[in-house]
Write a structure and sequence with these properties.
Blueprint lengths: L32 H16 L3 E3 L6 E4 L2 E4 L1 E2 L8 H18 L3 H21 L1 E3 L10 E3 H5 L5 E3 L1 H17 L3 H9 L8 H4 L2 H7 L1 H19 L10 E4 L1 E5 L3 H8 L2 H33 L4 H12 L6 H11 L7 H8 L19 H25 L4 H9 L4 H25 L7 H4 L7 H4 L2 H11 L5 H30 L5
Antiparallel strand pairs: 1-4, 1-7, 2-3, 5-6, 8-9
Membrane topology: Multi-pass membrane protein
Protein name: Putative aldouronate transport system permease protein
Keywords: Cell membrane, Membrane, Transmembrane, Transmembrane helix, Transport
C-alpha cells in the first residue's frame, strides 16, 4: 500500500503515513483480473447446465435402466459436439489472455464464446441421446420453447449470460495503465516485466520457450485434454449413448452413496495426517542434521533418509508385507515373539490386514518413504542462512535452542508454507500408496476416493463412467478449494502466498 500524497510505502494496516503525516486511505480494489476470470468460469459452469428444461414431469420422460429422467438439453447432448469444444477453447483463450494482461483481446474471445453459444442455441439440433448409433428424436430448442407449458429456458442460459457480462466488464479495466497513472512514476523506472510487450518477451527468451515446448505439449495432452471429458459427469455414459441427466450423479453422491462418503472421510484423514506427519518429520530431521558438524556422518544420514524416495510403491508394499508378515517369516513379529510380547505367532496381528492397525502402519510407511524428499528441500534452505547471524546471536549469549527458535525456524517458515501448499494440492489425489497396501479386510478404513473410482470403473458389475467422472470432478474441486483456502490464509497471516 502506498501513501496518496508522497507515494511512500506503508504497512498493510497503517492509518497515518510516517513520512508526511497524511491519513492513509484504504486502497480501492483495482485488480479486475479476478472479476474477469470469475466471469469466464461462471460462463463455463453455465455450459454444463441445461439450456432448455422439461417442466412437465409427465411429458417426454426417458427411461434409463430403472430410472425415469426428465428431458433436458444443453451442450451435453448437442448433435454437433464440436460446438462444445469450440466454446471451451474460446473460454480457455480468454483466461490465458487475461493472465498475460491482454484484456482487450480477452473481450473478443469471450464474445466469440457467446456467439458460439448463440449459434448452438438457435441453429443446432439436440437429441435425447448423444450417441450416433441410437439417436432419439432430434429437437430444435426454439421449436421446443414454442410450447411454454411443457418447456422453459433452463438455468444454463441465465448463468452464461451473467458470466459473459461479468467477464467482459472485468476486462474493460486496464490494470497496468491504472497502476502507472495512480503512482505517477516514469514507466522507465518500472520493472522490465511491466514495460516489455509480450511478443518482445517471447522473442527475447525464444530459446527457453522452445526448450519448454515439449513439456507444454505433454501437459496439454495428458493433463488438460482429458478435462474435456468433464461433460460426461452430467450424463449416463456407458461407452455409447450418453444421456444428459443434469446433476443426477452429484445428487446421488450426496444423498444415496454411503460408500462415497466413507471414501471421502478416509481420504481426508489419510492424506491430511500424512501431509502433517511427513512435513513435520522432514522439518525435525533437517533441523537435527543442520546442528551436526561432522560432515561425513551428516552426508551418510542424508543418503540413508533420501534413498527410499526412489523406490516405487510396489516395491515398498512388497517389502513391508514381508517384514510385517504374521508368521515366522515376518521380521517384526519374530522379534516381538522372542521378546515375549506375544506368546505365539497365532497371537500376533497382521498390521496390514487389521482395521485397528492399518492406518497407523500406513503413516509409518509413508514417513519412511517420503520424509527424505522434504528433508533435502529444508536443508537447502538452511544452507542459505548467513553464518554471521548465528555468530552474532552466539556473541549475544543465545544458546543453541534460542538460535534455532529465533533464526533457523523463522528462516524456514517460507519453505514450510510453500511445501505445505504444494503438497496440499495432491491431498485429494492419494491413490498409489493406498492401492498397493489395501485389501478387502481393511476396506472400511483404507478405501479412498481414487480407489473408489477405480473400483467403480473396473471392478463393478455395471459400469457408469458418468458417475465416476462426477466423483472425480468433485474430488478435483475439493482439491482446488483446499489449495486456494490455504493460500488465502497464508496471505492473511504472512502477507503473501504462492498462487
Amino acid at each position: 500500500m502506498q501513501c496518496k500524497s508522497c507515494h511512500a510505502e506503508l504497512a498493510k494496516h497503517a492509518k497515518v503515513c510516517p513520512k508526511c503525516g497524511a491519513k492513509a486511505k484504504k486502497q480501492a480494489f483495482t485488480n479486475t483480473k479476478v472479476i474477469a476470470i470469475f466471469g469466464v468460469c461462471l460462463t463455463f459452469i453455465g455450459g454444463l447446465l441445461p439450456f432448455v428444461q422439461d417442466i412437465d414431469p409427465t411429458n417426454n420422460v426417458v427411461k434409463i435402466n430403472t430410472d425415469s429422467i426428465e428431458v433436458a438439453y444443453s451442450f451435453m447432448n448437442i448433435q454437433q459436439i464440436a460446438y462444445w469444444y469450440l466454446f471451451m477453447l474460446a473460454l480457455v483463450v480468454s483466461i490465458v489472455l487475461i493472465a498475460i494482461k491482454k484484456e482487450k483481446l480477452s473481450i473478443i474471445s469471450t464474445s466469440v464464446a457467446a456467439v458460439i453459444f448463440g449459434v448452438a442455441f438457435f441453429a443446432s439440433p439436440y437429441c435425447e441421446y448423444v450417441g450416433r448409433t441410437k439417436p432419439f428424436k432430434l429437437h430444435n430448442l426454439t421449436d421446443l420453447l414454442a410450447d411454454p407449458q411443457v418447456y422453459a429456458i433452463g438455468i444454463g442460459v441465465y448463468v452464461i449470460i451473467i458470466g459473459v457480462i461479468i467477464a467482459i466488464a472485468g476486462c474493460f479495466f486496464d490494470v497496468l495503465k491504472y497502476f502507472k497513472r495512480e503512482i505517477k512514476v516514469d514507466p522507465r523506472y518500472l520493472s522490465n516485466s511491466m514495460n516489455k510487450n509480450i511478443w518482445v518477451k517471447i522473442k527475447t527468451y525464444r530459446w527457453f520457450y522452445l526448450m519448454f515446448l515439449p513439456v507444454l505439449i505433454f501437459v496439454l495432452l495428458f493433463n488438460y485434454w482429458p478435462m474435456l471429458g468433464v461433460r460426461f459427469a452430467f450424463t449416463d455414459y456407458i461407452i455409447t449413448n450418453p444421456h444428459y441427466v443434469g446433476i443426477k450423479h452429484f445428487a446421488a453422491m450426496a444423498t444415496k452413496d454411503v460408500f462415497f462418503w466413507n471414501a471421502f472421510r478416509n481420504t481426508i484423514i489419510l492424506s491430511v495426517t500424512k501431509l502433517l506427519l511427513n512435513t513435520g518429520a522432514a522439518v525435525v530431521i533437517s533441523l537435527l542434521l543442520n546442528e551436526i558438524s561432522n560432515l561425513t556422518f551428516k552426508k551418510t544420514v542424508q543418503t540413508i533418509v533420501y534413498l527410499p524416495h526412489f523406490m516405487s510403491w510396489v516395491v515398498v508394499a512388497s517389502l513391508f508385507k514381508l517384514i510385517l508378515s504374521p508368521d515366522a517369516s515376518g521380521l517384526v513379529n519374530s522379534i516381538l515373539v522372542k521378546m515375549h510380547v506375544f506368546a505365539t505367532f497365532n497371537d500376533v496381528p497382521f498390521y496390514l490386514g487389521d482395521t485397528r492397525y492399518w492406518q497407523a502402519t500406513f503413516f509409518v510407511i509413508n514417513i519412511w518413504k517420503d520424509t527424505g524428499w522434504g528433508t533435502i528441500l529444508f536443508l537447502a534452505t538452511l544452507s542459505g542462512i548467513s553464518p554471521e547471524l548465528y555468530e552474532a546471536a552466539q556473541i549475544d549469549g543465545a544458546n543453541r535452542w534460542s538460535r534455532m527458535k529465533f533464526i533457523t525456524i523463522p528462516a524456514l517458515m517460507n519453505t514450510i508454507i510453500t511445501v505445505f501448499i504444494l503438497n496440499l494440492a495432491k491431498v485429494m489425489k492419494i491413490f498409489e500408496s493406498v492401492f498397493v497396501l489395501q485389501n478387502d479386510a481393511v476396506d472400511p478404513v483404507a478405501n479412498v476416493i481414487q480407489t473408489y473410482i477405480y473400483q467403480k470403473t473396473f471392478e463393478a458389475g455395471t459400469v457408469n463412467y458418468g458417475y465416476t467422472t462426477a466423483v472425480g470432478l468433485f474430488n478435483s474441486l475439493i482439491g482446488v478449494v483446499l489449495v486456494l483456502g490455504c493460500d488465502f490464509a497464508s496471505k492473511k497471516v504472512r502477507g503473501r502466498g504462492i498462487v
